[in-house]
Fold this protein.
Amino acid sequence: DFKEHKQQLLITFDNEIVRSHDELFDQIQKLEKSNYLSLTLFDQIEQWKKTTIKKVEKAAEKIHHQLIELLHKQRITIIKQLEPITQEIRDRREENFFENDIDELKQKINEIKQKLEQFTEKDTMKSIIVSNDQIDWNRLIYIQEQQQN
């Protein structure tokens, strides 16, 4: 009877424990080969990348338009400052003018030239461009391992 019981235990052990273990091991092997889970994770990473690129492109496009508007405003401002001088030059040409009139107009023209030079200098544009060095790119996306119990 003991021998029979031992035989029964061995059959149960083989059928339930060993077979379950082997099936589990096979599933793990298949999972490793198929990369099923990692593929969905890679897909998530690709989706994040595409979304982030779209956001960066949208932000760059917005700043591009703002820069165009700013440059246009500055150009208009300089043109408006030049208009009275243009009129004064026309008026002086038709009327009598003196040496001090020439000096005064030279000074006004030079002031606007300086403003134009400041406007076109590359150094003034640096304050418009925002650096992305402040972004911690490594913290924007990361893998967090789930704790197994």
Remarks:
- Helices lie at 2-34, 36-94, 99-120, 122-126, 137-140.
- Residues 1-34 form one domain.
